[in-house]
Design goal:
CATH architecture: Orthogonal Bundle
Structural class: alpha+beta
Number of domains: 1
Mean pLDDT: 90
Number of strands: 2
CATH topology: Arc Repressor Mutant, subunit A
Oligomer: single chain
CATH class: Mainly Alpha
CATH superfamily: Winged helix-like DNA-binding domain superfamily/Winged helix DNA-binding domain
Low-confidence stretches: none
Number of helices: 5
Strand content: 5-15%
Strand order of the largest sheet: 1-2
Distance between the termini: 33 Å
Length: about 110
């Protein structure tokens, strides 16, 4: 099983949601929107590097932004989709075993 950490999962889901507009600034904002937590930018860059190294992300150079510097766009690879699906299945197995009382918070 390909295991994703919680941070890797959040980054990959943000990229999935952003489709063709997934670069560091938009990924960072999407994670904040999804989780309510502000990820340290260094953590984001390290996670992107690790996910690319594992083969879960593809990257390509995008159009230059206002500063003239090109952005790096990210896309989930087939291997990355498989890892996300396995992570989701793992969460389902874990939560299926939990008593329903936890769903109500009481």
């Amino acid at each position: 099983m390909k295991k994703l950490t919680v941070i890797e999962e959040a980054v990959m889901l943000a990229i999935y949601r952003l489709k063709d507009n997934a670069y560091s600034v938009t990924i960072h904002q999407e994670i904040l929107d999804m989780t309510g937590k502000d990820m340290i930018i260094g953590t984001l860059f390290n996670t992107l590097k690790q996910l690319h190294h594992k083969g879960y992300l593809l990257k390509k150079t995008g159009k230059p932004v206002k500063s003239g510097k090109s952005i790096m766009l990210y896309q989930i690879s087939n291997k990355g989709i498989e890892a996300l699906e396995q992570t989701r299945a793992m969460h389902s197995r874990i939560w299926d075993e939990m008593p329903k009382v936890l769903y109500r918070g009481g």
